[in-house]
Every structure is written in C-alpha cells, then in structure tokens.
Amino acid sequence: MELLKTLNKKVLIFDGAMGTMLQKEGLVGGELPELYNIEKPDVLKKIHKEYVDAGADIITTNTFGANSLKISNTPYTVDEIIAAAVENIRAVITNQLIALDIGPTGKLLEPIGSLSFEEAYELFKEQVIAGVKSGVDLILIETFSDLQETRAAILACKENSNLPVFCTMTFQDNGRTLTGTDATTFVNVVQDLGIDALGVNCSLGPKELAPIIEEILNCSLIPVIVQPNAGLPTLENNETVFELEKEEFTEFIKPSITKGVAIVGGCCGTTPDFTKLLKTSFGGKPVVKRNVKRKTAVCSSTQTVIIDGRVKIIGERINPTGKKKIKEALKLNKMDFILNEAMTQVDAGADILDINVGLPEIDEKDAMVSVIKELAGIVKVPLQIDSAKTDVIEAACRLYCGKTIINSVNGKQINMDKIFPIARKYGASLIALTLDEDGIPATCEKRFEIAEKIIKEAKKYGIDEERLFIDNLVLTASAQQEGVLETLKGIKKVKDNYNVRTTLGASNVSFGLPNRHMLNKTFLVMAMTYGLDVPITDPTAPEIVGHIKAFEVLSSIDIDSKNYINYMDSTDLSNLIEEKNTSESNKDLQTIIIKGLKDEVEAVTALMLKDSDPMVIVDEYLIPALNIVGQAFNDGDIYLPQLIRSAETVKKSFVIIKEQLLKSGMPTISNGKVLLATVKGDIHDIGKNIVKVILENYGFEVFDLGKDVQPEEIVETVIKENIKLVGLSALMTTTVISMEETIKQLREANLDCIIVVGGAVLTPDYAKKIDADYYCKDARETVEVANKVFNIK
Amino acid sequence: MNEAKLLKDIRKYLGSSTILDSISENKIGKILEEIKHDYTPRHIYGVYDVSIKKSTILFTGTILSINSQNLSTVLKDSEKCIILACTLGIEIEQKLKQFSKSNIEDGILYDAVSAAYIESYLDDVNLKLSKTYLDKGFYMTMRFSPGYGDVGLEVQPTILDILQAQKRIGLTTNDTHLLIPRKSITAFIGLQRTPYKNSEDRCAYCSIRNICELRKGGKYCGTTQNTK
Questions:
Q1: Which of A532-536, A634-638, A713-717, A744-748 shows the lowest mean pLDDT across its residues?
Q2: What's the confidence (pLDDT) of residue A1?
Q3: Residue A783 near residue A694 (C-beta atoms within 8 A)
Q4: How far is B176 from chain A (nearest CA, A)?
Q5: Which of B89, B98, B207 comes nearest A733 by C-beta?
Q6: Which residues on chain A are in Cβ contact (under 8 Å) with B174?
Q7: How many CA atoms within 13 Å lie on the side-chain side of A3?
C-alpha cells in the first residue's frame, strides 16, 4: 500500500488492455473472458507478467464482467472467478498493487431498462465482497456509461469495503456518455461519494478525449485517472485494428499530464509496449498541481446547475400543503398529474424542483421513491428532496441519480446528528434553516449564530460551505412585520462572512394579507438585493420570473440585458397567442373537438359552463363529437394522429368539467374503473396509451400501470381498487406468454373481473385460448366492450 | 438518406398510405428535424466467415450458432456474414416516455418518426457496406433480423456480446430479449460471390404472415414484422 501514499504526488501507471490481449490468445467473440481465469490461468499470468515487466504500478484483475448476471450460465461463482483472477496476478507481481476490476452489469437500469438500482447494487456488492476476501488493494470501477449504475457500484464499494476506489466513465465524441451524462455532471455527482480518483477510459483515443479530460481536470477536487483506447478502431480483414502506435498515443496523452492527470494507463488496443513507454515518459514524475475551487453545483443525471451569482429558481409547486389537486394525485398515485406539474414549472423557468410528498394519509417514503423514479426518467432539471423525516430523506438520496439538495437541516443538535451523515454519504448539499431548540430567533444576529453553528458542524462531516444554502426563514408580515427586514439583513450577514449560498421560501411573507402576490414579488426583489441566490417559489405565478430577469438587468448580472430581452420576446409572443385564442372562442365545441384544437378547448368549455349543465356538455357535445371522429377513423377518412388529437382535446375539456363538478359538489363522472397494462417483459405501450385516452374520453376511470408490469402488481391493484375490467396488451409472441400467466393469476385469485386483451400478434381465437374474455382489435372496440361490461347505453 | 421512403415509412407506421392532414405533416417535419439534430444514431458491425450444416449456421471466431431454415436459405451461398447492430440511443427514450404521459399525439408521432429514422439510417449503412463489399467482389443478401421467420429473439444477447454492443453503443436486452433502448435494430447480411435473388414471397420471413389481414386480402404492408 506504500504506493497509494504517493497518489496525487507522483504519476502512477496502470496496466493496459486485457480484452484485446486475450483475443490474440484465442478468445472468440461472445466468449466470457472471465472464464480464462480458471480455465486458462497460464494465459492470464503471462499477460499480467508482461504488464508487470513493462513497469505498471497497478495490475487490474480480469473480472470486468464477473457479476452473477453475466456468468449465470457458467459452472462458476463470482467468488471463484475473482479469487482465481487475483491469484493469477499475485503469482507474478513484486510490489505492484492489485486492482479489482468492476465493469457494468450489462443490463440497463430503470426507468428505461428493467434492472432496479438495488438489484444492480447487490450484483456489485457480491463482487466487492469477493474482492475484499481475495485481498485486492483497490477497486477500479470502469467503462460505465450510466451514472446511476456508477452510483450503485460506488455505494457497493463504500458500504462493503474500506478499499480505495477509482472510478472511470466512458464518453462519446459529443462529450457525453451513452446515457447522456456530461463530464462536469459526472464529476460533481461522484466526487463527494468518498472515492479516491475519477476519470475516463475506453471508447475514444487520447486525442479525442483531450477536451473531456480537460473539463474533468477543471472541476475535479480529487485525483484524475485516464485510460484511453489506442485511438479509434477500424475493421481490417475481419479484425479490429486500433489506429495509434505507442509513440503517438503517449504524445497525445502528454498535454493531459501537464495539466494535472495523476494516474494513467491504457484501454482497448493498448499493449505492454504502450505501458512501457508511459512508464518511461511519465511514471513517478510529480503530479502537476491544479487549483480547483469548489463550486456550488446541483445536478440531475444529465445537467449541472451552478449557483454562481445568477439567481436560480427552485420550483415549489410539488408540495401537498394547501394544494388540493396535488393531495388528490398523491393519494390516488396519479403520477401523470405530478409529472405535468413538474414540466409546467420547468417550462416556466424553474432550474431545480423541490419535491415534497408529506401527507399523513400516505406512506411518505413509498410516495417519495415513486415520484423520484418517475420524474428522474423524464425531467432534466435537478430535484431537491424536501421532507421532515430522516428515513424519507435517506431513501430519496440513495435513489436519486444526481447531486441533490436536502431540504432541510436545522440548528438542533439532534437534527444535525441525523441529517449530516446522510448528506456526507450521498454527496448531497443542504438547505440549513436558522432555527434551533429555542425556535426561530427574532434578530438577525441570533440567526447568524445558528447559521455559524450549522456551518461548523457541517465541516466536521467534511461538508464545505459551498454545499450549504442558508435559509433565514421569513415570517409573515401580517404577524411579525419587523421580522421581515431581520431576515433580509441575515442574508447579507451570512454571505459577508461565509462562502455559503442563501435561499428563502419566498411565499410565506404575504400570508394573511390581501393581494399576496404583490407582496411576494416585492419581497423577492428585496431579498435578491440583499443577496438571495435561490428563491424557492412558484415560477408559474405571474411576473415572478419576469421580476428576477428584471432584477438581473438592474443589478448588472445580465450583461447587455440579453437574457431579459430574450425572455420578454418569448413571453410577449405567448400573450399574443392567448389573446387570439380568446377572441375566437365563440367556435362551436364540437367543431373544436373534431378539428382537435387543443389550445382553444379549455376557454370554450369554461365559457359554456357559465350557463350550461356540465352533463349536458358531455352528452350533447363531447360524446357526439367523439363518435363522429371515431367513425371517420374507422372509415379511413382520418388517421391515428388526428384521432388522438381530438381525443386529447376532449380530455382537456373533461378536466375543466370535472373541476366544475367538484366545486359544485356534484358527483364526478365515472362510468367504471378499468385497469390497463402492457404485460411483463413487453415494452410496447403506444397501443395501450391510445386505448387509455379513448376510454377516458368516454368517462371511464383508467388505472394505467404502464409497461413491463408484473402479474402480481396487476392482481394487487384489481383487489385494492375493486376493478371490474382489466385490459392487457402484448405485442410480441414471446410476451403473450406473460399475458397468459397474468390471466392465470387473475383467475386463480378468484377475482370478479372481465379481461380484455389486444396486441399485434393476438387473434380472437388465441385470446380465447389464453382464457381472456374479449379480444379487441382497437380502442373503439375496447370502448364497446367497456360499455357492455358496465351497462352503459 | 432517402427522404421519400422515410416519410412513406412514417406515414405507414401511423396507419396511412397517403399524405396525412397538414397539422400532422407539419409536426412530422419538425420532429424529424429535431431528431436529426438532437440524437445520434450509432452502429457497429463485425464480419464473420459462415458455414452451414443441416440448417445450423456457424459464425467462425464466435460462439454463435443458429439453427434456422429461413436464415440458412438466405445465407446458403454466403461465404461471410455481417452482423450489425444500431441504435438511436437512450436519450430519445426519455422523450418518448415524457410524451406517453403528457401528450399522446406527439408521442405516437415521435415513435413513428424515430422508428422510421433508425430504419432509414440502417438503410444508409447497408448501402455503404454494399458498395464497400462490391469492390471486394461480394454481393449482399437481404437484411435479416432476429424475430424474422424461425429465428427467435433469444439470439440477441449473444449477438450483442460478440459485438460488445453494451460497451460500444449502449445497446442491451431485457429479460424477454427485446432490445433496449427500443429504437434499435440488429441484423445479419450475407456476403456472396453471385448476385442475391430475393424470395418471391414478399412475406416469406414475416412473423405474422399467418394471421395478417392485409396478406389475406392480397396486399403487402411493405415490411417484415419481427414480433417473435
């Protein structure tokens, strides 16, 4: 371990390629290289020895794919393969270090793939434990493309070993990994997870990697490792050939070494000759010092928001407190609604979204986990985790792929003792509330004292000032008028003394006074003048974003007013469109639906509701229009896009009508509950989504479980929601089998439900064979069946 | 890129053999531009000597062997076979997911455009390869994908392993051997010394040929379904 003490002082040399070396020794395509550890140990020893002789300081085990998923069809266990791999190195080394190699699982993680985060974690954990047992000196996590999978591997290392961890990801020529993570985001997300070095390997040569390496060197606070390919591969006479010779390879790496790379090696196509030249050129030379200052970064898996002077907005709308619709959505697990709330805020200008799902009636942890899973797959901006419960915060931090902000920690010792360890472990930043055991102090000075206490306590956990957002807690002006200015002075004071950032929930100040919005906007501008960095506010509220843009002009942050001008140009345009829409709102609702004018339907519906019964609108306008469109589709006069356009127009009208019914205390429209799902193993959901929107149009309440759904989940939901009609979809011959299994389980559970099936390879006969009640060839037929089942005329 | 064929394919996926309404056509145009601009299709391939014994095809230098009468027929005169994989990548999945929740109309348009686009990209790759190999004295067979005829999807994982597709282009399979990300294609193309003659039955290798309504009516959808 002596060698590791020189990490980041002297340049360390890693060995080179294994895969391409094994191919020369007879490894054929599709064969598992890891089996050679046991079946051809002499080949491995020979290759390792060549790298030792070439001067490598660290030798990597041949265990890239040694996880129990990939080796499931072999007679060996992960333990056996890793033990043999380590022995093959131990037999040939003198004072070199052994690095346990961990590559990706080979499966894609949720939400795009089906492997869960915890399943991936378990696979890596098994490898780490085997490596520790075999006595490796460090762990190399390498060639990862998926940031979430990388996090799973790092956590598995940190929770199951005390070994140093090096971690590299693989980037494409567009500067991103195959799953869309850029180098800056990669660095910011993983460097606070307690690893010892990070960097890049594989996919490209040193020349193409140079800008990516530079980006990493500019923001990484820990040592940087680089293992490029021997240039780009080409296919010559059925063989993959890499373009660079060792001299060019070394020459291209040199600039990165002079900028501060601490560990260097090779990937695909490199050989011991490359290692030898790297050793003589760079080995043992002092690592060039970099002067990297920590920035306050908040990240999703594909985006980094730097808090550096420009005001950034944290959207506050996903929070059930005082919001009926969000409460409803959370209770009924209606993710679509929450997702739309998220997207609306992003469109309005939110840079980060606060997620709070605390409701006494629901399991907050479950709800938080499902909201984060859902949003992280779709929304690009970073998420902030907002909860009063430690277990909820921990579960969310573990799952969220990014660098999040925990909302919040406060000055109570017991609270800091619980929250800081979570932030340290998952690399999160924190909002720090200036309150303690005695409550919220009245004066700016007392709040500053609490802020100082929190900042000092954070340092004990290695959490720098840049990772803290101090919230000086504004009270309502109606109750404690003089307190408002104390809050603002507190912002300035804490920023004058520490390199922290500041935040505020900007909407509380107006509580209890008329025209709250006026007060909120004014307060926001005042707070920004005192140095507020990230207000937590509602970006969709009128003029909030406009005020921030204007503030940035007047305080010389928005140079030449460029952002302001752009923003005003775009919003003026949308105002014009809105005006135009209302001026034409005398169009007939039926025409609007047939033409699919989604932007106009809400205004017209609202207008009609002023003097018409909601049910009359449904029966005399919506349903007849739908029937006309349906018939036209059936006759081949219109095609799928138009049908769906009309259907979504109806859906928007329905939302307004339902709100009216809710307000007036009338029963809401439900012709019956229908469950829809694409069965396990199948990922085709277009057909199912079409059926969903059409069923909703006809007043059915749809429980959409999505795609790749386990039979057990379907059975459970049918029981829980007392569902009478179940619609299953499968597109492939292979997945019709899981459709059959789902039906079997529904029947075995003795449930009183009718099952309807659809999908490209199904026929009425086949549907009968697998015990379905109905086969429907399209959405229209499904509506007919639903009408029959629920006795709708 | 053959724009005319691309547009025709998009319309076909949307259930139409003619031009759609102007709103849809405009949207398709915009989505196509966006996909071209924002997403990078990637492909990889390898070339292998092939030998066939009793309908079992062996690919030299790999562990792959496929028992299939259909693929044997296609490759019967081939000396070599190209194994090819391409994908539009994972980022488009996020977009498709977003629309499946918020805007199904745009969702189906995106789905159709991206499916046709990756197909069209593969056509271009195919064309380039056919020129390269013609210079070397080879003619290409039809492009045959897993899921056609009697070749099941269970060959997908091995194909991806051979090409190291997960590492190189981020292409994987799920438990039922479907390609993930979804807008992806794998295929075999034989290389032979004489010009290749297509099967006279256009639906020869289609997996739904026995239940296809179009085929019963004597019509042809213009593609081979691989829903195996």
A1: A634-638
A2: 62
A3: yes
A4: 5
A5: B207
A6: 107-108, 113-114, 681, 683, 708
A7: 21
Give the list of residues 6+ apart from residue A613 with CB closer than 8 angstroms, or none.
none
State mean pLDDT over A540-554.
Answer: 93
CB pairs under 8 A between A and B: 174
Domain spans, chain B: 3-194+201-216
CB contacts of A647 in chain B (<8 Å) are: 104
Is B104 in contact with A734 (Cβ distance < 8 A)? no
| Shortest distance, CA A692 to any CA of chain B (angstroms) | 10
pLDDT band at A659 (very low <50, low <70, confident <90, very high): confident
User: Which chain B residues touch A67 with a CB distance below 8 Å?
Assistant: none
Chain A neighbors of B175, CB-CB under 8 A:
114, 681
Residue type, A448: F
- Residue A328's pLDDT band (boundaries 50, 70, 90)? confident
The mean of the pLDDT values for chain A is 93
Tens-place pLDDT, residues B102-148:
889 999 999 999 999 999 999 999 999 999 999 999 999 999 999 99
Q: Which amino acid is at A395?
A: A
Chain A residues within an 8 Å CB radius of B158: 30
- Chain centroid to CA A716: how far? 27
Contact at CB, A644 and B108, closer than 8 angstroms: yes
**Across residues B71-78, what is the average pLDDT?**
96
Q: Which residues of A touch B59 (CB under 8 A)?
A: 29
Closest approach of chain B CAs to the CA of A783, in angstroms? 18
Q: How far apart are CA B134 and CA A225, in angstroms?
A: 44
Positive or negative torsion for Cα A501, A505, A510, A512: negative
* pLDDT, tens digit, 9 for 90 and up, residues A57-69: 999 999 999 999 9
**What pLDDT does residue A426 have?**
98
- The amino acid at residue A89 is I
Is residue A603 within 8 Å of residue A582, measured between CB atoms? yes
> For residue B89, which residues of chain A lie inside 8 Å, CB to CB?
178
User: Taking CB atoms and an 8 Å limit, are B208 and A340 in contact across chains?
Assistant: no
Percent of chain A topping pLDDT 90: 77
Least confident of A312-316, A697-701, B212-216: B212-216
What value does the mean pLDDT take over residues B151-173? 94
CA dihedral of residues A625, A628, A630, A632 (deg, nearest 10): -140
**CB within 8 Å: A378 and B228:** no
Instruction: Tell me which residue in B93, B97, B176 faces A682 most closely, judged by beta carbons.
Output: B176
* pLDDT bucket at A376, cuts 50 / 70 / 90: confident
Check whether domain B3-194+201-216 has CATH 3.40.109.40, yes or no: yes
**What residue ranges define each of the domains in chain A, with the CATH number in brackets?**
2-282 (3.20.20.330), 297-541 (3.20.20.20), 543-574 (no CATH), 589-663 (1.10.1240.10), 673-789 (3.40.50.280)
Cross-chain Cβ contact A112/B108 below 8 Å: no
Q: What is the ipTM of this complex?
A: 0.89
Q: Which of A103, A107, A689 is closest, CB to CB, to B100?
A: A689
Query: Can you tell me the mean pLDDT for A233-244?
Result: 83
For residue range A287-320, list pLDDT tens digits in order: 999 999 999 999 999 999 999 989 999 999 999 9
- Which tokens is A87 given? 């022995």
The whole-angstrom separation of Cα A146 and Cα A153 is: 11
Q: Is the pLDDT score of A584 beyond 60?
A: no
Distance between CA atoms of A371 and B39, rounded to whole angstroms?
Answer: 27
Is A143 in Cβ contact with B211 (below 8 Å)?
A: no
**Are B101 and A340 in contact (CB < 8 Å)?**
yes
Is omega for the bond preceding B181 within 30 degrees of 0, making it cis?
yes
**B27/A29 Cβ within 8 A:** no
